[in-house]
Amino acid sequence: MSAPDRRGLLQRDHASLSIRRQCQLLSVARSSVYRPPRPANDNDLELMRRIDELFTAWPFLGSRRMTAMLNSEGCRINRKRVQRLMRKMGIAALGPKPRTTKPAPGHKIFPYLLRHMVIDRPNQVWAADITYRAPRPEESGERMFGMH
Question: pTM above 0.70?
Fold first, then answer.
């Protein structure tokens, strides 16, 4: 449940629970209860309308390119503000996401042997790191100890 939904469950005139305790139970910051959110200004509404128009025309635009397009139109705007407005509108760029876990063709996938094993004592399972990094010339033993 989102924070605004939890904030909506709060009852200011509850008979036995104080606002402080309700905020604790609902995991809501008390500052968000006492100070209402500022309403969107007219400039934000204009920008949101323009962002929606651009996003409808080019649904693959992210916040960086959206910011560049708005700036080229003469609207001076920060990328973080574009991100905030896009998040508020519930839009995100459509496009390929990183495919970091896709194995290379022909690559053997090894089974994870510890999946169902309960590790409950010291020295039951060991691990090793086989990462190799070639030493730079100044790190080799000859240079380090003054040998030629």
Answer: no
Q: Are 55 and 33 in contact (CB under 8 A)?
A: no
* Number of C-beta neighbours around residue 77 at 10 A: 17
Q: Which of 7, 50, 59, 11 is nearest to 28 (CA)?
A: 7
**Polymer length of the chain:** 148
C-alpha span between 6 and 3 (Å, rounded) = 5
Name the residue with tokens 């010339």: 137
Cα–Cα distance measured from residue 46 to residue 41, given in angstroms and rounded to the nearest whole number: 9
Sign of CA dihedral 84, 85, 89, 94: negative
Task: Collapse the DSSP code of 94 into the 3-class scheme (helix H, G, I; strand E, B; otherwise coil) and give the result.
Answer: coil
Task: List pLDDT tens digits, range 2-33.
Answer: 888 888 898 989 999 999 999 999 999 998 88
Q: If phi over 0 gives left and psi between -120 and 50 gives alpha, with beta otherwise, what is residue 68?
A: alpha
| H or E element that contains 52 | helix 42-57
